[in-house]
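Input record (one chain):
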Amino acid sequence: MSANASMEEFEALLNESFEIDTPSEGSVVKGKVIAVEAGQAIIDVGYKMEGRVDLKEFANPGEAPNINVGDEVEVFLRAAENARGEAVISREMARREEAWDRLEKAYAAEERVEGAIFGRVKGGFTVDLGGAVAFLPGSQVDVRPVRDAGPLMGLKQPFQILKMDRRRGNIVVSRRAILEESRAEQRAEVIGNLAEGQTVEGVVKNITEYGAFVDLGGVDGLLHVTDMAWRRVNHPSEILSIGETIKVQVIKINKETHRISLGMKQLQADPWDSVENKYPLESVHTGRVTNITDYGAFVELEPGVEGLVHVSEMSWTKKNVHPGKIVSTSQEVEVMVLEIDSAKRRVSLGLKQTQRNPWEVFAETHPEGTQVEGEVKNITEFGLFIGLPGDIDGMVHLSDLSWDERGEDAIQNYRKGDVVKAVVTEVDVDKERISLSIKQLAGDPFAEAIGGVKRGSIITVNVTAIEDGGIEVEYEGMKSFIRRSDLSRDRADQRPERFGVGDKVDVRVTNVDSKSRKLGLSIKAREIAEEKEAVEQYGSSESGASLGDILGAALKGGDE
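The corresponding structure, as predicted from the sequence alone:
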């Protein structure tokens, strides 16, 4: 019984020793280098098992193999025996398994890993992470695109694992994440030493349309184009060049985004501090046109001080014209200061105020009644516009075209471009209006015809026509019409047919209408006036004399 027990124990111990000493295929085992020959290392992995491994499997990328007899190494046992009776082992596979274990721990802990770029593939590079091969995308090499990755090849450096899949054997790493983290730390340190209002030196790294990026020693600040100079700067390249060292002032620091705003003009005196003293209201100065818009032109009075000449203040005569047709960029012009708003840093300027108002000049040189000559510039439904000295226009209203014709008919006699003469009748400087008259070039035939005739005058007219409603008469070439009711004081004599064409008749002027150019005439009014005059001269009806006696006396007196 005891002998059987001893045999069983011995067998168990023997089997246990076999299990311990005999490595299993597909695992990593320890071995000892017993010889190095023909570019291979012969390794004893125990249990009288030996295998061969190429020396290159012991070398890191870009380095020579470092292996000597007696060194203990870990290898991957692929098979216990091959056709030659040797173990099939691999140092590279052992390193890979070891590396994957190490990398998985680093990935889980979000730790950096060390590796070396050793090859170029489509879309990026390959990286040796101490036995495991990872993919480095081109976009993850640096914070900026890298044109030549040669200096980075074979260089041991830290990487951040972005993604890994052991089953598929995929690892993606980033060098950029390490650089950005380092840069962020560096930026934080530099920003911590900066303060708003501080003056620092920097190097211009990049220039854009809106400004320039300045390197302040590990951190970039933006120098906006509006903060480069007090004057207008069209493009930063006008005053800066890449690589130039400049002095700037820290205007603002955003601690969260690490953005820094810089300024150059803040280191210079603000020209607006003395604007009100240098440019009093209504003073005239010479400036340079810097910009032209639809609503006016900007004029630089000095570097940093610009004023706006509004389109309404550009010309006395050119209305609704684009400013670009009056001035041009870079042109030097004389302007008057109209208004200053230092708080808003605005100056209102006037271009036309440096010249005399042409309507004032015209009023002084062409008083009412002056004869002028000009070209018909425009014909409208209410009159003609005539070009006058001073690049201004005067208007001849329809009613001032002719004494005899209706305005609508008279205007048909004129064409655009005709040169005509006219008389100045009115100049309104405030409303910028000049009234002209063509018909007043000749005397008023109506006024000349009626001479000293006025209301109440007795004149002699010739009968020119007999009509049912009255008679047409003529006086000095002026036609008038006497209605039936005005032909006599007595109703029985209010008959047009009692007159004949060519008869001469005395009539009384009842109205002188210069506007309609007509005389109001009446025989009846003349008879009544004569009766009244006779009564006043020879007596009244109250004295006992009859009207017939009075009129008889008046007639007799007239005969004498």
